[in-house]
# Entry
Amino acid sequence: VNVTSVRADAAVLSSVEAAARDWNAFRAAFPTTGKFTYLDTARKGLVPVWVEAAMSSWMADVYDNAGFKAFSMEQIESAREDIAATFGAPSECLALIKNTSEGMNIIAQGLGIQPGENVVISVNEHENNTFPWRYLARKGIEVRILAADENATIPLDAYAKAIDRKTRVVSVAWVAYGAGIRSDIPEIAALARRHSAVSVVDGIQAAGIINQRVDDLGADAVICGGHKTLLSLAGAGFLYLRKDLIGDIAPPYAAKFSFTSLDRTVPNLELAPDARRFEYGNPNFLGIWVQSNSARIIGTIGLDRIEQRVRTLSDRLIAGLDTLRIRVRTPRRWEQRAGIVSMDFGRRASEIVDALEKQRIIVSERDKFVRASLYACNDEADIERFLNAAESLKGN
Ligand SMILES: Cc1ncc(COP(=O)(O)O)c(C=O)c1O
# Structure
């Protein structure tokens, strides 16, 4: 099967090329932008028409190629290359997994953490970067949950104090889903390394927005579900692991694809030396197909341009909130944030979220505050509509 020709449908290609030149064309590829003022990418990314095209091309592959050649493992390998190229990792260091939770659990269960050892996380972590670690407590593993300061930040010093020679893992969001604070991953990873602890990054609120190779972030592992700014589907994400760490993690599940040989009679099982060891049976072919197409598209648009666009739009939102005197909780400096802007209306956040929804403006409540989150499919008019509505809703 000629994968490239199936995927490179001419109409799709020209739409992607137009989108790469012009943000209005990019926005037009997301039909929901015409129906809502959508500022909730941090919950679920909007899905572009390219995803529908990819799903149709997957069905064409299913209809046109019978047996071995239909949705084959060869496509999984080419998908791995596409995803590796866009997000910056050697393909053998990438496992194509379901979601952030699966990646966290692979490490939590596979690293052989012993009773008396500990894991360091913080109050700013999402449930799915909390429960996989807290589940280890039943085995006598301590989970240290760092507190935030008055700015919702976890000071580096708190990590330095909490990490000790019994620490096996430090797990932290690249960008925290509540206040939108971008962590200083190189510093946190360096603190972990000093005590031979593994640094794990929940990348879901940053990958696809920040123009940064995952293998150059400084962390040992970067995990990402697909349903936000990877423009993938829920159920198709990735796990990046530093090459020399892969051999230290025993896969919690193993099956056909986890080993070097498919011969089930071999006397000695040998795990795959690369990140494929974390994959087992037939994968989410459709989700991975979509994810790889979206990775190619993000690569064509350019992560550098996407980052710049999100930065420009979020700067504008923050400036507008300042004018309205609505307190911004997210740090101002771009290096300390990404697409999330958390704000304090001085009123109950749920009332604001509900009132905005009545005007078809979609934001979230997180940590009792209003969270707007932007992507490159937003535009200046979205920001203006939000600010106009915000003005009439703010407290005194
Ligand atoms: C920081 C963060 N981590 C993880 C998730 C989701 O986890 P999973 O990919 O396992 O569904 C979200 C939101 O959906 C999130 O905001």
Summary: The longest strand covers residues 167-173. The first helix runs from residue 3 to 7.
